Amino acid sequence: MFRILSLCTLIFLSNTPAFSDTVSKAQKMLNQLGYNAGTVDGAYGNKTHTALEAFYAAIGSSYDGNLDANELDDLDKAISQRANLEEPISLSTIYDLNAGNFDFRTILDFDEDSFLDFELYETFDVDADGNDDLIFGINVKDIKTELHRENTMAKPVVLFWNQNIKQYVWDEEFQEQLPSLYYPRRVKGYRDPTSKKSYLFITNTGLDGTHASNCGAKNVLLMYDPSNKKLDYTIPVDLNDYSHGLASIDMNNDGLLDHLVLNSPYIKGRECNNEKFTNQSYFLISTPDGEYEIEPVKLQLAASEINLHYDAAHAFIEDGKAFFVMGRGYEQSTEGGIDVYSLNDEFTLQRTAFIPVPKIMQKASYSDISSINGILLANAVDTSQNWMWRGRYIQFINMKDGNFIWNDKNFVQKKPAAQPNEKVDWCTSINFIEIDDSIIFVCNTRTDIYSGRPMFSVLRNGIFVPITINSNIKPQIGARHRGLRPIVNQNTVKLVSWDYTGDRTLPSGMVWEKIAINHIDPLQLLVTPKYRTTTYDRTESGLELRFQCLSKYFEENNLDDFPSEQVIDRLASNLEGNDFYRSHRQIVKAGIPKDLMDKHKKALVRLINYEGSNEDYCKKPVVE
Question: How far apart are CA 424 and CA 443, in angstroms?
């Protein structure tokens, strides 16, 4: 009833010229931010109201139903934060370390008439020296068909950080002990807290599903003891499968990761030559002796979902409860989208939410899913054109109080029809970096090798704002950028970049089998020429001076409920040195009581985020 009365009141007010102007400004900014407020006509209707509700939900707040200067201020700040990141930057200008150059044909002693395709699948501190190492999966491709070459395998490549020379190196002894694999597509690194051994679980997918003999491959568990440099490996499950997705989490609280292995139904039994195989997904659960045993996955599905399968998965723990987020592979009888399952006893997965993907992804599948701090991102692709993966739709989901709130309006989505082939902008991997009060999202893409660039966004007030990358500048002379992943290096969070070099001409075109490794300081992504041109005086003395001016204004205008000295001291301490815009919600987290913020939001937000001198602020601490 309140919402209806509030909406009716605003519709009545929209007849006044002043309010109509406010509505027009709000509609224009909402449309700029991707929230459909309809035609900019100054008329407050249901579309404008719904767009405001969606905007505030996206920034972790709620719309109070009253459109006035406060809402315009919030919208204007969101627009400003987006504009601050629009100045293009070049990856080549923000490398802070050349960390090594490598020829994979040399490392693998590979001289066959084929070419090597590779991807950085995991960053993990294998040798326990405090610095993340790089694990590349290799697969051998036929020169003519560009498909995986049947019955031809290669070893993964592990590059170790060498602190003495501050570059990556490869260890010949370690490399020799690695097993040969078909297509190590998913890799997860972790450490046994008891034995201190490093584990690498590798899903060895097998051939790519497009040609015979298609019988998948056996997954592998590597165990490395850094104390004696001994490497062992085992086959946890003696089954050939096609592991399309992997989600890892400690399900039995023994300190070791357990794994959900998702298998797509690609294996053809007649091509397995009597080998054991499965198209079913399963759990691998650690046992007290450090081994793994298989447990079937029990899904609670409707009768119409009997053929449902998943192509990507992610696991996380919220309030002590394990959740699995799984992206559906295309299946004619089911709707495309994401299922969220909670883990119950006896390895039963109970669905708690379903988030559909828009209809433009006609035959949707998923490439990757990831999360941070209750935020989920998933990349959907379309497979309707001869099963090629085209288009990109990034789903942005907030988990709040056990609910999953869906908001995708702040990403540049790619329509499948605009993508002629698979060399497009969908995310092969999704990664997050949390640094300097910011969360940076990195999407490594499958754009054509000549113009391939990652896609960056930074989270500001619940909205992912794009960081523009200059695609006209090569990341390194003679190099083609392929991907970025977060690492810990010398006690600092960084990005590791790997670029193709050493081109080779084949009948099918150019290939690259050498790489250049570089480190990037993630903070440099936030320091574009237009970013941080505004400075906020967040020194303790500066904040206290502005508080005194605001206090005087309150006193002169007979306003009550001014924050106490204790609150002011706490806020000044928490914000000292912070040079980022702070929303009203972040100011509450820094120390202002919520009831005071609700009562004096405009004045307090202006006080914390004033961009001029303190002298100018004190002349006008409150804008009427």
Answer: 12
